[in-house]
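Retro notes - structure team

What went well: the batch runner handled both jobs without manual restarts.
What didn't: labels got mixed up in the shared folder, which is why I'm recording both outputs here explicitly, each with its sequence directly above its tokens.

Job 1
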Amino acid sequence: MQKLARAGMMTLGVFSPRWAGRIAFELWRRPLARGRVRDAEREIHEAARVEVVDGIATYAWGDGRRPVLLVHGWRSRASRYASFITRLLELGYSPISYDGPGHGDTTVAMGTILDHQRIITALAAKHGTFEGIIAHSLGVPFALYAARGVAPAARFVSISGFGDFGYVVDKFGAELGLRTAVKNRLRREIEGRLFDGDPEIWTKFSVSRGNADLLVIHNDVDDVVDPAQVAVLLAGYGPRARHSAKTGLGHSRILSDPAVIEEAVTFLTGNVSKRSDVAEGLDLSA
């Protein structure tokens, strides 16, 4: 499917960047495939207290004390955090999550970063202030934006995430082989059809200086999110951010790695140093 779409978009982009941009927008706003609950996740998934509000499937575990929010990424779902949830429950936390619009068991169509902000705000109102937030991939900019004011948390863990909101277009464009003119048209389509024509969204929704301690966990080879985004996150977030580099885990397997889980959860408990790595001069190519 992706190969066919790539060939078609490359051809159309030569003759009509405008139409190619419009079609790219329709492809961009649809994940095409919904993640299913895997066998290893089923026990935790079925143990959740499930509530569907306005088509959004939300999940809660634990006794309600010390809530921790988990935000999944593109073509993923809340159950991908099964190993995190197990560990958090062992330590007395109450994990909270949801399937984003267009994903998992949520029935409403793809939304925007503002829809995720509303969902996260509603979860914070229901479950109380989050002691921590863990986000993966596309969930990172969504959760970081929500955490700026409406859903603050003392500590935030970014896993395989990115800080430049425009990266979603750059990555999508690279996958489909979009010409620069088509990518620019796609940006205009996103601005006009989803954000009332606001050209500032690329800055507004990118990472900005935060008030929580931030741990950035990223693999040194990631074929989905360029490790160079680590420097963007660190520089944009400020001195309360630190980086933990990983090797050999890729973009998705990193979520089930026991060492990553333990490090992230330990960071949420506040039992680690608050030392910040300096983005300047950080070698991300090793």
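Job 2
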Amino acid sequence: MSRGRHVVVGGGVAGAAAVRGLREAGFDGEVVLVGEEPHQPYERPPLSKDFLAGAADEDGLWVRPRDWYREQDVELLLGTQVTAIDVAKRRLTLSAADGASTLPYDRLLLATGVRPRRLPGVRGERIHYPRTLDDARALRSHLQSAERVVVVGAGFIGCEVAATAAGLGKAVTVFEPDTVPFRRSLGPLVGGALIDIHRAHGVDVRLGTGVREVAETTHDTLLVTSTEGDRVECDVIVVGVGAQPNTELAVAAGIEVDNGILTDALGRTSHPAIYAAGDVARQYHPHYGEHLRMEHHDTATRQGAHVARNMLGAEEEFAEPFWFWSDQYEHSVQSAGRLPDPFEPVVRGRVEERRFSAFAWQEGRVTGVVSLDRPRDVLDVRRLVFAEHEVSLEQLRDESVPLKRLAQRHTAVSRPASA
């Protein structure tokens, strides 16, 4: 395979999957991964759960052992920021602790990820916006001595941190501005069930209530004033109100951006030598016929490997169903495919027992599912969603009808042409 230098910007799971994919596809040129953090690529999901609780150490976070990069001849430039892309000369400008430099490339992958959205005026040493390993280290340290924790935002990060803190015996209060949590990602039925689970574990969840002000008290605590006028004193505040894609580098280089870096189904950006993958990429999906940006761990990993092959000329479209999960307490919520908005679910299982699946159904087809403690349903729908099948509402509700039998032919559904 032809030589050259392929550079990956971003040290998350998409970037890690890409450098591995380049080597597994037989690329024998130079592979360089540039990461702004000082750490080698690591897994983020444990940061809000086992690692935060002290049940897992850092050695279990690494995507690959450090020796793997050396053995595969992958150069890691960690603690290094890419400050500019010269698309004409195919050259990066780098900034690191030891000074600025340049790095030429033949193919470039942008996997720059996302960063937490911040609330105006809500900042301080004991106010955390968790995203990175260093963020998780600081939050874990503060949780050890904290008695009362306030979480702002009942999304996945907020709820996972709330579950971890409650499991550590902390008094937890959650403020969520929306009256229907997880309205778009899970739908009201599953979202409501998750909130009920948190309340059953002693978490004070206040829906339809945001945070207006945070102030320090004279006795070394934080005082949170809600939009409804309630006041809650606490030791630590965790904010999880969404994320925004890191597109500034692409914008400055003239690469097309719209709520993420726009790519075709191959992962190519508006500049043919530059690709994007992971949370920052808004990739065209040939099945859905539109550009989609998914902040999912599984999607980032699969896109990274997929784009790596296309950087070497594979010309493969990324057309996989989306899948994600979240573990909270002893429960696991998973989803596959896409849920419409609004979502009118078809239910299999028992909602009152908090073990059920909510299916999205349209014209005799399953288009998506979100499940609470029924992982097999999600696995079956991942295989089913793009295959030819026909199912009635009665069959979908009937647990005696195996979902996996609905797509025995495994025939791909016709789809619109790639943009």
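One thing worth noting from job 2: Confidence is low (pLDDT under 50) at residues 409-419.
We'll revisit the folder naming next retro.
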